[in-house]
C-alpha cells in the first residue's frame, strides 16, 4: 500500500513500528500466543485482587487454543445463555472489534441491548500523515440500527404479516452475497458500489413475488437445510441477475475513462520528442483489440464465456455448463455460514451449530448470480468432524519467511523448512485483490505433522492441544457464592463436571477444575512478565467453563424485553440512486427544495461549477487559453474511446463523474451539454 501511494505521488504516512518481529506470531500455536494467554490470566487475577470494581464480576477467558474466532465464541456464549430459562432479556452487551461482520452477528442474536465499539479507521486515501495520540472511536447501538432497518425494509402490501425479526434474518442472509472473510463475493456485488442498496431494493420489490421470507430460523436445526426457502431464493436471484450486466458494463466504462485520463496525462507530461513513441506504446498496451489488457471485459458481449475460459480453462458449452452446475455449491456455503458454533467448536457461522470443520467451497471465485439456478437439486448435509490442532493450523498458514522469526518446534523445522514439496512455486492470479491467500492439501499436511508428534517436548505438546474456556472470580464474591461452592466441590473430584445454578449465578453451563489445583489458588501466582510483581496473596479462583448448548434457539425478541423508545423516522433516511443508474462513480447531488417554493414540487439546485487551481494542468495553458489543448484532447478522446463502445462522438453517454483534468473541475448535476461553459466562438458545447 505504501508503494502504491508513492507511485501515485501521494503523501505517505510514517511507518508504524511493530513491537513483534513478525505479525504472524499472532497465530494459534506460537510461543507468543502461549505467553499472551499466561499474561492475560495474570492480568485477570491482578484485577480481581486489587480493583474493588471487579470483586463481584466473573471473567471468562477463551485463549487461542480454544478453537474459533473471538467474536464468534462470544456470540456463541450469548446465544447459549439466552436459551436458559432464567436468562435476563434486558442484559446489555458491548462487543469491541474491527471485523466488519460484528454488526451482522449482533443483529443475528436478536438481542436489543447490544452495542459495538470500534476505532474509526480511515480509508487508505484518508490516512493521516501524522500520527495522533488519541484515536477516535465509533459506538453503534444495535437497537437504533434495527429502527433504520424496520423503516428501510418496509414492504408495501405484503403477502404475509410483517415481522421485523424475520426481515432482519433475510437482510443478514442477502448481505452474505457481498462476501466476508469466509466466502468470496458475488462478482456483481461490491460494497463500495453500494451493493447493499441494490440488495434491499430487489428484496423489497420481489418479496410478494417470492411469497414471503427466505430464511426460517425456527428450522435452523434441520439437518437438511429446510430453513432456506430455496424456491423463493431462486426468484430473488433471478431478479437480482437483471442488474448484473448493467453493473459490469458501467465498471468497464469507468475503467476505460480512467485509462483515457491517464493516457492524456502521460502524453501531456511527456516532451514533444517522446510523445510519438509513448503514444504508440500506450495504444498497443491499452487499446489493442487483438491483445487487450483486459482479456475478460465483463459487460461486453461474450463476457461470461471469456470468464470461464480464462479462469477455469474450459472451452465448450458443455464444459462451461458442467462448471456452472458445480459452482452452485455456493448455496451450501450459505447454509454453512448461517449456523452458529457448538460451545467447543466455534466456526464462522451465525444461527446454528457449526456442521463441519473440513468442508469448504472449492473455488476461488463465486458464481455469477445469473448462474444460480436449479438450487433445489442440492441436498445440503455435512459430516461432523473436529478442528485442526494448533500446530496443524500453524503449518497450514505460515509462509516460509516466517519460519526463521518464530520459535517453532525443532522437529517441525527439520521436517518442513526449505522443502519444495511443502512450499512449491505457484503461478498466482489475485483476481483484482491486493493480498494473496492460498490453500494446501489437508490430508498431506496432517500426515506429515503426525509423523513428528512423538518428538515434541512437553511444553510443545501443551501448546498443541485444544482447550476449554476458563472462568475467574474472587474468592469472596457475594453474587457468585454458588459458583464458589461448585469450584470447591470439583477440586476434590477432578473428573467431575458440575452444573451451574443459573438462577443464582446469572449464567448457565458447567464447571470442572482447571490445571491450577482445581482453581483453588495457593495464595501465590508468579508473574509471567519481567518487571511485574508476583501476586503473593491471591484471592482469585478459576475453573474450566463449559458453555451450555443452545438447544432451542429463539430467533426473535424474548418476552419481557424492554425495547428503547423509537427515535428514528422516515425523514432520517436519505434515498440515493442505485450505483448503476447514474454516470460516473459519484452519485449526483441531492434535490434541494428552495424556501420560497415550499408548496411547489422540489427542483434541483442551480447548476454551478467549482474551479480549483485554474491556470494549472494541461502544460500550463490554463482555462482561458486552451484551444490547442482542447483540440488535442478531442483527437485523443476519439482514438482512445474507440475501444469497446464506439467513438467519442458516437458514445450515448459518458460515465465520468468529473472532467479529464487532474484537479481542475468537479462536475455537478447538470445536462451533459452544459458540463462546461462554451468559449466565445464555440459552435458546439465543449466535451472532454
Name some characteristics of this structure.
single chain; 688 residues; mainly alpha; 5-stranded antiparallel β-sheet; 3-stranded mixed β-sheet; 20 helices; 6% strand; disordered C terminus
In short:
By secondary structure, the chain is mainly alpha-helical.
Give a written overview of the molecule.
This protein is mainly alpha-helical and 688 residues long. Among the domains are: 390-423 and 434-463, no CATH class; 609-688, no CATH class. The protein is 33% helix and 6% strand. It contains 20 helices and ten strands. The strands form three sheets. It has a five-stranded antiparallel beta sheet with strand order 1-5-8-7-6. Helix 7 packs across helix 8 and helix 9 runs antiparallel to helix 10. The protein is globular, with a radius of gyration of 30 Å. Mean pLDDT is 74; it is low at 340-348, 432-437 and 592-688.
User: How many alpha or pi helices?
Assistant: 20
Q: Residue-averaged pLDDT, rounded?
A: 74
- What are the secondary-structure elements, in order, as H or E? HHEHEHEEHHHHHHHHHHHHHEHEHEEEHE
User: Quick one: overall form?
Assistant: globular
Strand tally:
10
Oligomer: single chain
Helix content: 25-40%
Low-confidence stretches: 340-348, 432-437, 592-688
Global structural class: mainly alpha
**Alpha-carbon Rg, integer:** 30 Å
* Beta content: 5-15%
